[in-house]
């Protein structure tokens, strides 16, 4: 379970995330929706222990975010910004293996796990090729494979399908569903309403660092008396003066 309590991040005088609280249970997929700059990545980076909250904290599968960051890291698989940190001169397998070693996986298990993931994400054709000439989508898959190689219980994915074609997006969607079925927790940010609507058990809408709304798609639609999630979103975050 993830229990976020009043998490806040200030960059100098700018309040990027303001007193955000929410809970996610095992087997739940939570979607983070918000305009550019709303604070989604900052929330994910704090939960991934990459950024220290200014105040507030979180409990992640029983571990305290601030007091037990190493334990929290062991529980989480993180994906940020697509190809960042993919080493061009290494093959896809070597990139993934490097992360497996960083996560203290036993050497004899690593290759079998990489083969499994490679089939699951449709990477078999290029798993042993150098990533330098890969397309953005192929690199994105290497990043995803790398983030899940140690089979974490929690996945924090920042725009996981950004830049992917329809087939690849579908592979990621199916992967998220299978993680949910295994009882894992997934939090992901997205700008694609249909993706969020299709995959998420609950949606957290962030606006200017604050929680603007939270609930199931059905709850949000019924609360705002509107069948279209994009309209609900616009009602919450849109500039009412805009045409
Ligand atoms: N290291 C930093 N220093 C100063 N300001 C920052 C820093 N990181 C993020 N911000 C600011 O915090 C706000 C929230 O940024 P964040 O990246 O969390 O937004 P986001 O919701 O993920 O946006 P997007 O959808 O564009 O990815 C933005 O105004 C951003 O400029």
TrEMBL record:
Keyword line: ATP-binding, Nucleotide-binding, Transport
SMART domains: AAA
Domain ABC transporter: 2-233
GO molecular function, one term: ATP binding
Top-rank lineage group of the source organism: Bacteria
UniProt KW Ribonucleoprotein keyword: no
PANTHER family per the UniProt record, alphabetical: ABC TRANSPORTER ATP-BINDING PROTEIN (PTHR42711), ABC TRANSPORTER ATP-BINDING PROTEIN NATA (PTHR42711:SF5)
Family: Belongs to the ABC transporter superfamily.
Protein name from the UniProt record: ATP-binding cassette domain-containing protein
């Amino acid at each position: 379970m993830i229990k976020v309590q009043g998490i806040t991040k200030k960059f100098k005088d700018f309040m990027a995330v303001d007193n955000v609280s929410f809970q996610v249970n095992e087997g739940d997929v939570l979607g983070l929706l918000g305009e550019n700059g709303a604070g989604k990545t900052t929330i994910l980076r704090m939960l991934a222990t990459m950024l220290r909250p200014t105040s507030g904290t979180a409990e992640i599968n029983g571990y305290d975010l601030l007091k037990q960051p190493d334990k929290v890291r062991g529980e989480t698989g993180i994906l940020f910004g697509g190809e960042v940190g993919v080493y061009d001169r290494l093959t896809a397998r070597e990139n993934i293996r490097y992360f497996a070693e960083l996560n203290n996986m036993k050497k004899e298990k690593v290759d079998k796990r990489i083969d499994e993931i490679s089939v699951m994400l449709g990477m078999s054709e290029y798993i042993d090729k150098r990533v330098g000439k890969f397309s953005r989508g192929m690199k994105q898959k290497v990043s995803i494979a790398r983030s899940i190689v140690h089979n974490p219980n929690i996945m924090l994915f920042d725009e996981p399908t950004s830049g992917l074609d329809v087939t690849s997006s579908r592979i990621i969607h199916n992967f998220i569903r299978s993680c949910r079925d295994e009882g894992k927790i997934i939090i992901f940010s997205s700008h694609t309403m249909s993706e969020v609507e299709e995959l998420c058990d609950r949606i957290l809408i962030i606006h200017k660092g604050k929680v603007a709304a939270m609930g199931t798609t059905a709850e949000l639609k019924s609360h705002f008396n509107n069948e279209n999630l994009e309209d609900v979103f616009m009602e919450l975050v849109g500039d009412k003066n805009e045409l």
